[in-house]
Every structure is written in structure tokens, then in C-alpha cells.
Amino acid sequence: xxxxxxxxxxxxxxxxxxxxxxxxxxxxxxxxxxxxxxxxxxxxxxxxxxxxxxxxxxxxxxxxxxxxxxxxxxxxxxxxxxxxxxxxxxxxxxxxxxxxxxxxxxxxxxxxxxxxxxxxxxxxxxxxxxxxxxxxxxxxxxxxxxxxxxxxxxxxxxxxxxxxxxxxxxxxxxxxxxxxxxxxxxxxxxxxxxxxxxxxxxxxxxxxxxxxxxxxxxxxxxxxxxxxxxxxxxxxxxxxxxxxxxxxxxxxxxxxxxxxxxxxxxxxxxxxxxxxxxxxxxxxxxxxxxxxxxxxxxxxxxxxxxxxxxxxxxxxxxxxxxxxxxxxxxxxxxxxxxxxxxxxxxxxxxxxxxxxxxxxxxxxxxxxxxxxxxxxxxxxxxxxxxxxxxxxxxxxxxxxxxxxxxxxxxxxxxxxxxxxxxxxxxxxxxxxxxxxxxxxxxxxxxxxxxxxxxxxxxxxxxxxxxxxxxxxxxxxxxxxxxxxxxx
Length: 487
What we know:
Strand order of the largest sheet: 4-7-8-1-9
Strand content: 5-15%
Structural class: alpha/beta
């Protein structure tokens, strides 16, 4: 088909015009029948959001995607381009993507009337059939719909009553394309009103021109849930004209969240080869995000983007890489102490409520890390609080699995874990703690990551107030809880 260059050749080929909604629908049907993945790279939405979008496309609906930030709304909209035909014929030189067999603009109609079957035809790739606009308060009707262009009128020596003096906006230029407006509530109410006719009747009005352009546009709008935003709202009549409203959500399991982070993290090849990130630390990072979404210090209406985990993972790898370079090592394994470098990725991704502002973003990040460590600790080791309650309930002696480690610190010993310590020194320091290595092995930890789990035990014991911890000059010091008190 791409070899066709004139209107006559296009007619002879058997080409039939169709609306973009029919085009999306028919191509989706083919994908579904062939059992192909429709939205590649989207994880966690297979049974929720994606079926809703597919139903909307089959219904030939315009779509409003509601969800908190970082829920892949824009990514989904961009992937809809893959459901378009690879190439689309237009009248050559048309600014409105005029279909040669169904022209809309005055330019295309006049050109076809003049040249007939010799009218030149161009082919537009589907990647050029996607238009995206971020809604901001300064967006005008002229930007979206169009306006009279006095320079064009003067150049062509035409009166303002001639439709050829119109400069078309983004939406008319998106004829036969996908048009996305992100953050719809930020669009002023009077601008939202201007979208009514296009959604209902499919035409446009520009400064009183009696101009009817039955545009074929697939509209996709994105927004935070209306009740959650203080910046604006979607006016009810506009919302009523958008046929399908689809709710997005954050990953519902740690495993899905890890897959998303692994897929989206932008790491250098050298980092991937030199730095190993154990599954335990990937779990810890995602648990921090899950804790943030439930935290009383963070505004749940604002949400916690998946970008927190993605940026945090990149920082975690970079913290380990920097430590490796400082110590002249060739490879390294990430540690819990490397999470000190993740804090900047946390503080920049959360919106605090009043209580959080009082704590400060830095302290909130530390609290989230503490909560995540505590939760992860309990997944691998006995609950110290349960052991204490059990001892109180029964007269029989109950063995304290942490007793040997506790006694080590009670004897006045300390452990110093430096952020930039070499791998050898790090392992030596952990190995000093009596009973620590034996404890992790008794709980089923393999030798490969035993030092990581030994570090987790120390941090976990701090969270349960069995031992104390302080951070001074880039160094974690673990010691007896009462040591500082007596000092």
C-alpha cells in the first residue's frame, strides 16, 4: 500500500475509509484472537485495568483513566498507538490528516476538485498519530481548537470571514489520531466546556465560523481521582460525555512491584555486571514503598509513585557501586547500610501531611525504612515479642533464640558497620558477634547471603529494642540498649 502515490491508485487498491475507533477495535480483535499481548510491558493490570481498556476500545469509547501518580496511565495511552494500522494515507500537504476518500479541510477538498485522481497521497506512520498535551491553567481554546490567524489572512489577502484564515489547534490536527490530555482537572472549566461538541457531536466551533468538521479522534484523558485533588475538578457535563472511566491502581503484591522496578530501572551495563542486589534487598525496597502508601505521615490522596522504588533501586545500586570503587574492588553485593543512599529517592517522592512535616522528610524516610526492616525481619526470624509473651505465660523455661547475641552486646561489645567499608572488613565486623552466624544458619539461610541476613538480624533486633543503634559519621554502631544510659 505504501507504494500508492495518487488518489486514483488508492481507489483502485480497494482501500475503504474507516474511523480511528473502528480501526482500533478491529486491530484489537485480531490481537485478542491471536492470543497476543496487547499492552506490552504493563505489569499487574492483567486482570483489572487492561480488560477494562480493551472493553472500552471494543465499545469505541473515549476513555478517562483515573488514578494516583505513577500508575502507568500515560504509558497505557501511548501503547494504544500499537493498535493503529502501521501506515495511514492522507492528502499530501494536509494539516488535518485528511482521508483522500473522505476529505474534511477546505485545502483537501479544493485540491481533490482541482487534480482529481492525480491528487498526491502521502503515508503517515502510526507513531505520528499520537498527540499528547499536559493540561495546565494557561492552556487556551486557541491551543486546543484553533483561532483566526491575522498573519495568514494578510498573507493570503483573505477576509476574516474566509475559513482559510483559521489556524487549527492541536485537536483538529489530531484528526484520525489518538489525542491525550494528561491531568484533566488542571484544565480550566471554560476550556473543558470547549471540548463538549467534539465529544458529543464530533465537530468544532471557532469564533463564530459556521464550520463543521466531523473529526475522528480517539480521546484519552488522565486524572487523579476527582475527590483527591485540590487543584481543580472535571466538570460534570464533560465527565458525562466520556463514555468509559477506568480506575488504575498500584502493584498489589511485592513480586509484581519488583518486576516493575527491575523493568523500569535505568542501570548502566557496568553496574549490572559489577553490583549484585540480593532478593532480600529488592523485597526491602518494595516494602518501603508499600509502607509509605499506608503511612500516617504521608498524604494518601497524593499517592506514592512507583518511581520511588525505581529511583530507590538506582540509588541502591549506585551506593554499592561507589563503595566498590572507593575500596578498589571489582564486584560487590549491596547491603542494608547502602540504603543510606536510597533516602534522597524517598524524600523527593512523598507528599507529607502536617504530622509528617513536623517529623521532617528525612526522619519520615528513616521511619519507613525501620517499618520495612521490621516486617522483613519477621518473615525470616522468630518474633522476639512472641517469645517474651510466651515466657510470661508459662512456668517452663523458654529458650531465647537471641540470647547469645544479646549477651554479646550486654558484655560491652559493639559492632561498627561503615557505609563505605570494604567487603572484607564488613564481613569481619559481623563475624565478631557471638552466635550471630549460627543463628542465621539455624533459620535456614544459605551461606551465599549469610552476611546480609546477619546484618538484617542486627537491624531487626534494634527495631524490637533488644539492642541499640546509632548513626554517627557515616557509621552504624550497634551496642547494648543501656550502654548510652550508663555513659
